[in-house]
Amino acid sequence: MPNKTTPLTFEIDMDVFTALEEFKDRTNSKSTSAIIREAIERYDLEDVAAEFKESKQVSLRLEKETRDRLKLVAKSQGISVGFIIRECIMNFIAEDQVTPQPRAGKTRTMTVEKPDQEEAINPWQI
């Protein structure tokens, strides 16, 4: 059973939002939330610095464990959870420009090659 998630709303500046949307389009990711969750998981939460710009509000669902971890770091650093998430997103996108990342939120598909008709084996053949 998957872990339960809870909604978290935060501000995201327009530069980050635009970069996130471009990343989503470029990578054909299906979910902005999946990209953000992956960005949070990959980011070193000990390396956070604050700066503020024009913003847009975004909402995503996070597991309680991740949400609590973000709140703890934000409180200890004296910054917002949203700021940390923005840092995670920008770091994730920057990493992808250097080393392409697995696509967050994409459903993996598997292709199975069918044998040629001539090579098909009759299951009743001995």
Explain the overall architecture.
The structure is a single chain. By secondary structure, the chain is an alpha+beta fold. The chain has a single domain, classed as Arc Repressor Mutant (Orthogonal Bundle), CATH 1.10.1220. It is 45% helix and 14% strand. A two-stranded antiparallel sheet has the order 1-2. The longest helix is centred in the last third of the chain and has 18 residues, at 81-98. The model has no long low-confidence stretch (mean pLDDT 80).
Question: Strand order of the main beta sheet, please?
Answer: 1-2
Largest sheet: 2 strands, antiparallel
Which class in CATH terms?
Mainly Alpha
Beta content = 5-15%
Question: Could you name the key traits of this structure?
Answer:
alpha+beta, 4 helices, two-stranded antiparallel ribbon, Arc Repressor Mutant, 126 residues
What topology emerges from the helices and strands here?
Elements: E1 5-13, H1 14-27, H2 32-42, E2 55-63, H3 64-77, H4 81-98
Antiparallel strand pairs: 1-2
Condensed summary:
The protein is of the alpha+beta class.
